[in-house]
Amino acid sequence: MSTSKRVVVSVGGSLIVPDGIAVGFLVALRACVLRGIEQGLSFFIIAGGGKTARRYQEAAREVHGDLPRNDLDWLGIHATRLNAHLLRTIFREQSYSRIMKDPTVRIEATEPIIIGAGTEPGWSTDYCAVTAAKTLGAKRLVNLSNIDYVYEHDPKINPDAQPIERMTWNRFRSLIPTTWDPGLSAPFDPIAAKEAEMLGLEVAVINGAHLDRFEHYLAGTPFIGTTIS
Q: What CATH number does residue 109 fall under?
Protein backbone atom coordinates (compact mmCIF):
# COMPACT_ATOMS: atom_id res chain seq x y z
CA MET A 1 0.00 0.00 0.00
CA SER A 2 1.37 3.38 -1.02
CA THR A 3 2.17 5.60 1.95
CA SER A 4 0.25 8.40 0.21
CA LYS A 5 -2.85 6.27 0.66
CA ARG A 6 -2.23 5.61 4.36
CA VAL A 7 -4.04 7.78 6.92
CA VAL A 8 -3.41 7.83 10.66
CA VAL A 9 -6.56 8.46 12.68
CA SER A 10 -6.48 9.36 16.38
CA VAL A 11 -9.92 8.68 17.86
CA GLY A 12 -10.53 10.56 21.10
CA GLY A 13 -11.68 8.42 23.99
CA SER A 14 -14.46 10.94 24.59
CA LEU A 15 -15.98 9.78 21.29
CA ILE A 16 -15.73 6.06 22.07
CA VAL A 17 -16.83 6.35 25.72
CA PRO A 18 -18.42 9.76 26.36
CA ASP A 19 -20.19 8.17 29.33
CA GLY A 20 -21.34 4.74 28.26
CA ILE A 21 -19.95 3.17 25.09
CA ALA A 22 -21.08 5.17 22.06
CA VAL A 23 -22.39 2.35 19.87
CA GLY A 24 -23.93 4.76 17.35
CA PHE A 25 -20.57 6.47 16.85
CA LEU A 26 -18.82 3.12 16.39
CA VAL A 27 -21.36 2.03 13.76
CA ALA A 28 -20.84 5.30 11.86
CA LEU A 29 -17.03 5.14 12.18
CA ARG A 30 -16.96 1.57 10.88
CA ALA A 31 -19.05 2.49 7.85
CA CYS A 32 -16.91 5.57 7.15
CA VAL A 33 -13.60 3.68 7.33
CA LEU A 34 -14.89 0.81 5.19
CA ARG A 35 -15.90 3.30 2.50
CA GLY A 36 -12.39 4.75 2.70
CA ILE A 37 -10.93 1.29 2.15
CA GLU A 38 -13.14 0.88 -0.93
CA GLN A 39 -11.51 4.07 -2.24
CA GLY A 40 -8.06 2.51 -1.84
CA LEU A 41 -7.07 3.98 1.53
CA SER A 42 -5.49 2.15 4.47
CA PHE A 43 -5.69 3.24 8.09
CA PHE A 44 -3.77 3.20 11.34
CA ILE A 45 -6.38 3.96 14.03
CA ILE A 46 -5.30 4.74 17.59
CA ALA A 47 -7.78 4.90 20.48
CA GLY A 48 -7.80 7.33 23.39
CA GLY A 49 -8.84 6.42 26.92
CA GLY A 50 -11.74 8.80 27.58
CA LYS A 51 -13.83 8.58 30.72
CA THR A 52 -12.75 4.99 31.25
CA ALA A 53 -9.22 6.21 31.92
CA ARG A 54 -10.33 9.11 34.10
CA ARG A 55 -12.66 6.98 36.19
CA TYR A 56 -9.96 4.43 36.97
CA GLN A 57 -7.50 7.19 37.79
CA GLU A 58 -10.01 9.02 40.01
CA ALA A 59 -10.91 5.79 41.81
CA ALA A 60 -7.26 4.99 42.47
CA ARG A 61 -6.65 8.46 43.90
CA GLU A 62 -9.80 8.33 46.02
CA VAL A 63 -8.81 5.02 47.62
CA HIS A 64 -5.06 5.52 47.93
CA GLY A 65 -4.57 9.27 47.92
CA ASP A 66 -1.53 10.65 46.12
CA LEU A 67 -0.10 8.28 43.55
CA PRO A 68 2.98 8.46 41.31
CA ARG A 69 2.25 9.78 37.82
CA ASN A 70 3.64 6.52 36.45
CA ASP A 71 0.84 4.48 38.06
CA LEU A 72 -1.86 6.85 36.84
CA ASP A 73 -0.39 6.83 33.34
CA TRP A 74 -0.51 3.04 33.23
CA LEU A 75 -4.19 3.08 34.13
CA GLY A 76 -4.75 5.45 31.23
CA ILE A 77 -2.68 3.29 28.88
CA HIS A 78 -4.66 0.18 29.71
CA ALA A 79 -7.90 2.11 29.13
CA THR A 80 -6.67 3.00 25.63
CA ARG A 81 -5.86 -0.67 25.05
CA LEU A 82 -9.36 -1.72 26.10
CA ASN A 83 -10.85 0.82 23.68
CA ALA A 84 -8.40 -0.30 20.99
CA HIS A 85 -9.46 -3.92 21.41
CA LEU A 86 -13.06 -2.81 20.93
CA LEU A 87 -12.05 -1.10 17.66
CA ARG A 88 -10.06 -4.13 16.51
CA THR A 89 -13.09 -6.31 17.19
CA ILE A 90 -15.50 -4.20 15.13
CA PHE A 91 -12.97 -4.24 12.26
CA ARG A 92 -11.98 -7.87 12.79
CA GLU A 93 -12.18 -8.84 9.10
CA GLN A 94 -10.17 -5.83 7.93
CA SER A 95 -7.59 -5.30 10.67
CA TYR A 96 -4.23 -6.72 11.63
CA SER A 97 -4.69 -9.34 14.35
CA ARG A 98 -2.64 -7.60 17.05
CA ILE A 99 -2.94 -4.18 18.62
CA MET A 100 0.11 -2.02 17.87
CA LYS A 101 1.51 -1.07 21.28
CA ASP A 102 4.88 0.20 20.11
CA PRO A 103 4.56 2.77 17.29
CA THR A 104 8.31 2.68 16.65
CA VAL A 105 8.10 -0.90 15.34
CA ARG A 106 7.03 -1.23 11.71
CA ILE A 107 4.33 -3.81 11.03
CA GLU A 108 4.20 -5.39 7.58
CA ALA A 109 0.45 -5.93 7.55
CA THR A 110 -1.48 -7.01 4.48
CA GLU A 111 -4.73 -5.88 6.10
CA PRO A 112 -5.93 -2.32 5.37
CA ILE A 113 -6.34 -1.43 9.07
CA ILE A 114 -3.92 -1.46 11.99
CA ILE A 115 -5.27 -0.60 15.44
CA GLY A 116 -3.03 1.09 18.02
CA ALA A 117 -3.15 2.10 21.68
CA GLY A 118 -1.12 3.82 24.38
CA THR A 119 2.51 2.82 24.69
CA GLU A 120 4.27 3.91 27.86
CA PRO A 121 4.05 6.55 30.60
CA GLY A 122 4.72 10.06 29.33
CA TRP A 123 3.52 9.33 25.79
CA SER A 124 0.16 10.86 24.81
CA THR A 125 -1.92 9.11 22.16
CA ASP A 126 -1.23 12.18 19.96
CA TYR A 127 2.48 11.48 20.25
CA CYS A 128 1.90 7.77 19.57
CA ALA A 129 -0.10 8.71 16.46
CA VAL A 130 2.65 10.98 15.13
CA THR A 131 5.30 8.34 15.86
CA ALA A 132 3.22 5.73 14.04
CA ALA A 133 2.90 8.08 11.06
CA LYS A 134 6.68 8.37 10.97
CA THR A 135 7.15 4.61 11.24
CA LEU A 136 4.53 3.78 8.60
CA GLY A 137 5.45 6.61 6.25
CA ALA A 138 2.01 8.26 6.43
CA LYS A 139 1.74 11.93 5.50
CA ARG A 140 -1.75 12.65 6.85
CA LEU A 141 -3.12 12.40 10.37
CA VAL A 142 -6.72 13.03 11.40
CA ASN A 143 -7.42 13.96 14.99
CA LEU A 144 -11.07 13.11 15.69
CA SER A 145 -12.05 15.00 18.82
CA ASN A 146 -15.02 16.89 20.26
CA ILE A 147 -14.22 20.34 18.80
CA ASP A 148 -15.15 21.86 15.44
CA TYR A 149 -11.98 23.87 14.89
CA VAL A 150 -8.76 25.05 16.43
CA TYR A 151 -9.51 28.54 17.76
CA GLU A 152 -7.26 31.54 18.29
CA HIS A 153 -8.32 31.49 21.96
CA ASP A 154 -10.13 28.98 24.15
CA PRO A 155 -13.81 29.47 23.19
CA LYS A 156 -14.87 28.27 26.65
CA ILE A 157 -13.14 31.33 28.09
CA ASN A 158 -13.62 33.73 25.18
CA PRO A 159 -16.93 33.15 23.35
CA ASP A 160 -15.79 35.55 20.62
CA ALA A 161 -12.74 33.43 19.76
CA GLN A 162 -12.42 32.99 16.00
CA PRO A 163 -12.05 29.55 14.39
CA ILE A 164 -9.07 28.91 12.13
CA GLU A 165 -9.59 26.74 9.06
CA ARG A 166 -5.95 26.46 7.93
CA MET A 167 -2.76 27.29 9.78
CA THR A 168 0.95 26.58 9.89
CA TRP A 169 2.60 24.52 12.62
CA ASN A 170 4.45 27.62 13.72
CA ARG A 171 1.20 29.46 14.33
CA PHE A 172 -0.45 26.48 16.01
CA ARG A 173 2.45 25.96 18.37
CA SER A 174 2.30 29.64 19.36
CA LEU A 175 -1.24 29.05 20.65
CA ILE A 176 -0.49 26.11 22.96
CA PRO A 177 1.89 25.45 25.90
CA THR A 178 5.38 24.16 25.15
CA THR A 179 5.13 21.16 27.48
CA TRP A 180 2.64 18.32 27.76
CA ASP A 181 0.69 17.27 30.82
CA PRO A 182 -1.91 14.44 30.88
CA GLY A 183 -4.54 16.93 32.07
CA LEU A 184 -3.75 19.50 29.38
CA SER A 185 -6.74 20.84 27.43
CA ALA A 186 -5.32 21.48 23.97
CA PRO A 187 -6.27 20.32 20.45
CA PHE A 188 -2.93 18.50 20.09
CA ASP A 189 -0.08 17.53 22.40
CA PRO A 190 2.71 20.17 22.15
CA ILE A 191 5.44 17.53 21.93
CA ALA A 192 3.53 15.70 19.20
CA ALA A 193 3.02 19.02 17.39
CA LYS A 194 6.75 19.71 17.36
CA GLU A 195 7.47 16.24 15.97
CA ALA A 196 4.69 16.56 13.38
CA GLU A 197 6.17 19.84 12.17
CA MET A 198 9.61 18.25 11.81
CA LEU A 199 8.07 15.40 9.78
CA GLY A 200 6.11 17.74 7.51
CA LEU A 201 2.94 15.98 8.60
CA GLU A 202 -0.50 17.35 7.75
CA VAL A 203 -2.93 17.12 10.67
CA ALA A 204 -6.67 17.68 10.35
CA VAL A 205 -8.60 18.45 13.54
CA ILE A 206 -12.21 17.32 12.99
CA ASN A 207 -15.23 16.92 15.26
CA GLY A 208 -15.85 13.18 15.37
CA ALA A 209 -19.53 13.73 16.12
CA HIS A 210 -19.87 14.68 12.43
CA LEU A 211 -18.14 11.93 10.50
CA ASP A 212 -19.35 13.32 7.17
CA ARG A 213 -16.64 15.97 7.72
CA PHE A 214 -14.07 13.19 8.05
CA GLU A 215 -15.27 11.66 4.79
CA HIS A 216 -15.04 15.02 3.03
CA TYR A 217 -11.45 15.37 4.22
CA LEU A 218 -10.55 11.89 2.99
CA ALA A 219 -12.10 12.69 -0.38
CA GLY A 220 -10.15 15.94 -0.66
CA THR A 221 -13.28 18.10 -0.68
CA PRO A 222 -14.03 21.11 1.61
CA PHE A 223 -14.78 20.15 5.20
CA ILE A 224 -15.51 21.79 8.53
CA GLY A 225 -12.38 21.60 10.66
CA THR A 226 -8.80 22.85 10.88
CA THR A 227 -5.85 21.76 8.75
CA ILE A 228 -2.38 22.24 10.23
CA SER A 229 0.63 21.85 7.95
A: 3.40.1160.10
Separation between Cα atoms, residue 119 and residue 63, nearest integer Å: 26
Tell me the C-alpha to C-alpha distance, in Å, between residue 92 and each of 30, 78, 82, 111: 11, 20, 15, 10
Decide if pLDDT at 182 tops 60: no
Alpha carbon distance 64, 182 (integer Å): 20
CA dist 46 and 16 (Å) reads 11
Number of domains observed in the structure of the chain: 1
Question: What is the spatial distance between Cα 205 and Cα 229, in angstroms, rounded to a whole number?
Answer: 11
Radius of gyration, alpha carbons of the chain: 17
pLDDT tens digits, one per residue of 68-84: 999 999 999 999 999 99
Q: What is the pTM of this model?
A: 0.93
CB 88 within 8 A of CB 95: yes
Residue 196 lies in domain: 3-228
